[in-house]
Structure to design on (896 residues):
């Protein structure tokens, strides 16, 4: 799996020696996914050279595996004939992916290079919403008719196999292209040659609509352990299939999106390095500014306790107790957000969660309070203040647990993305709550 | 995809009416993955009843899809004959999964119910490390020999298909069971009947070892878009395959593990509700105590600035600037940790990252400083202090970005899990740094 660094050096040596014949012979030995990693390590001019030496099938496969910014760079360098040849042979879903990332002007020029039917298909696919099943699907699937027998179905599959993304499922449609059944190649191979497709096909199959979100598609494939899922249009006509390899990428993408949102960033689908500097700055700064503005509430609260703040030793414990509260809240929020994302927590579990998190908060608060007192004693802290801090800590951890658990659930009920109610947002709420709780406890116990 | 609530009600009605005949007829109509969700909504006694009414194949499939704590509960209620029947028919990887979660005493009793060959296989699988390819693999794959021709290979596949987890790849082994090639069913169907397997099989295939971590297996399947990957032992003999559906679960599990670690929790593989209260408390409290102890440094630092703290209005800005620093650091850490996890950032990119994060930190710090001054003016803050805070903020955001980016990279270089260097750990470091920077800037500018 590790790219052979030696391979890169050998390729570079052949290029330097201009020994293109040996290079051309060596390239087909490399797996496309490995060649992609090798290309990333070579300068652009050498990438172009390697593409010229690849056989068409492999060139198309390697090109499809590149990141979109690399594809764009190469397309600019290709001749129109070259670009045309590769674009025409790409799978429709890979092509739609690429066009999605390019500026509209370039897309129009490139679409014009395609034959009419592919052009229509592209225009149709690009009209589906971002991240929908319609964007993700391929139209290269196997069709069968219900009255075919098994022998002729298998014969048909063998005939059309070279052009299809998967041949392991075949889709049975009627005259109006309505999907009426699915049959797996395994079922066909196990059945008698004379049996009819309609008698062995699954009629209670799972399908998705072109407009369904890719996350929904991924969940369906995952739940039912499928290799592919059919996509139907709003009139229930079969228009494509989504295969499991594309869904794996979606699962990673959706997790990355959640990681970013939970760190208070607008989600980006591109990788760290392929996201431009200012694009990335923009995605980060908006949330940081919003959160900074929210921190003004801590100022208001602290001004309110200006007199209490004169007891300097109270301040010594402040970062510790609001920080610990923030940590507990971040834990709760993460558990709930992830549970909601993988579908094992439902908003209906509201009361069970409140119950569990409350008890957990009290237990953890008690333990942390004890640790605080012991470590305070060792550190030579003002013990009166340490007792105040530990009592406040119990209340703060309990509140933090509840805030961390409830806010994602409330977001979900309001049809918002629970992932935005993660660490940073919880921390600020716990900071404000924590300061109030701490100083109220202090005022009460110190009688001021 | 949504479980039909009506279906649950209908099933409950049939159970109440004791109309088991209708129930028995209705059950095979439900997809196993849906029936699992329905079972979770029914009381245990009804679950047992439904299992008695299911045909064996479906019972095994549904049982395999249940969470391990549910499986354990049912096994206690099954008769020994019942348990034996289900255990014997489960796929080896599902069975290893279950045994992994059960107490050793019960496992020994259950293993004794299996025939000798399955018993040996289980003992061998359970000896592989946790989360390794050996645990994840199934032994139900199709073998071919190199000298077979295509027609007899297809005939062989049709014969053995019912017992195999996938028939879409076949694995070619020699006399010593060494894996020498892989051929897909698609290739076989496209080839002439008289061709030999050895002439069409892929010889440059990807395989993993029994001891390889499941994350490595998932990355290989993802990278090469495979439906299954062969697993070989340390002597390179073929012992099993891992299929893509199991890998999808691994990808989700690994992401969940990272989410938990990044929220400063010990990772748990079980779901929120199936993790016991005290188990979950233990996984959370250890990190919270460690972080609380680390917060003692903020106390030491604050004591050092006891005189400066007498300027109460300095304290008003403290939560805001250390909180904002923590947020910026959390963003950087998350970007780097996720980038490392999906393999698009390598430790080699060290300098590129330092460069990008430094400039990003200065730019974001400047913008945030301006927002701080404006919002301070609106809020009627002490403007001298607001200027001090905004200057400190630039340095703090820069330091936070660098800490957030570098600590995960350093962890990776030290072969530690980068995910532990996330939000909570970064926040505490930025809190300490932030307090020092803020009060040093204040002392310098206020000339004290």
């Amino acid at each position: 799996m590790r790219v052979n660094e030696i391979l890169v050096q050998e390729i570079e040596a052949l290029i330097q020696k201009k020994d293109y014949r040996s290079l051309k012979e060596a390239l087909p030995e490399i797996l496309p996914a490995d060649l992609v990693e090798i290309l990333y390590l070579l300068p652009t001019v050498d990438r172009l050279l390697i593409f010229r030496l690849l056989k068409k099938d492999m060139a198309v496969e390697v090109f499809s595996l590149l990141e979109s910014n690399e594809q764009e760079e190469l397309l600019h360098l290709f001749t129109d004939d070259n670009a045309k040849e590769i674009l025409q042979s790409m799978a429709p879903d890979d092509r739609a992916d690429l066009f999605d990332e390019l500026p509209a002007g370039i897309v129009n020029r490139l679409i014009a290079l395609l034959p009419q039917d592919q052009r229509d298909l592209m225009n149709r696919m690009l009209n589906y919403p971002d991240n929908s099943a319609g964007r993700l699907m391929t139209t290269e699937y196997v069709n069968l008719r219900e009255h075919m027998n098994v022998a002729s179905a298998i014969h048909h599959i063998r005939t059309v196999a070279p052009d299809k993304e998967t041949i392991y499922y075949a889709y049975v449609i009627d005259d109006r292209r309505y999907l009426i059944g699915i049959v797996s190649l395994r079922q066909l191979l196990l059945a008698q040659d004379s049996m009819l497709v309609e008698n062995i096909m699954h009629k209670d199959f799972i399908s998705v609509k072109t407009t369904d979100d890719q996350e929904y598609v991924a969940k369906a494939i995952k739940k039912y352990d499928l290799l592919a899922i059919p996509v139907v249009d709003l009139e229930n006509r079969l228009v494509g299939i989504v295969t499991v390899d594309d869904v794996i990428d979606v699962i990673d993408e959706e997790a990355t999106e959640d990681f970013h949102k939970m760190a208070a960033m607008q989600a980006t689908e591109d990788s760290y390095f392929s996201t431009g500097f200012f694009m990335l700055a923009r995605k980060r700064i908006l949330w940081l500014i919003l959160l900074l503005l929210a921190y003004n509430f801590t100022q208001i609260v602290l001004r309110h306790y200006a007199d209490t703040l004169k007891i300097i030793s109270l301040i010594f414990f402040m970062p510790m107790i609001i920080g610990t509260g923030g940590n507990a809240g971040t834990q709760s929020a993460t558990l709930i957000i992830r549970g909601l994302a993988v579908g094992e927590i439902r908003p209906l579990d509201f009361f069970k969660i409140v119950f569990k998190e409350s008890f957990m908060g009290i237990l953890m608060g008690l333990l942390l309070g004890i640790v605080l007192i012991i470590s305070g004693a060792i550190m030579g802290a003002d013990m009166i203040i340490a007792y105040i801090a530990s009592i406040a800590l119990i209340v703060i951890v309990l509140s933090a647990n509840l805030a961390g658990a409830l806010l994602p659930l409330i977001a979900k009920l309001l049809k918002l993305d629970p992932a935005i109610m993660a660490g940073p947002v919880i921390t600020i709420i716990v900071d404000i709550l924590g300061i109030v709780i701490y100083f109220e406890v202090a005022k009460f116990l110190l009688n001021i």
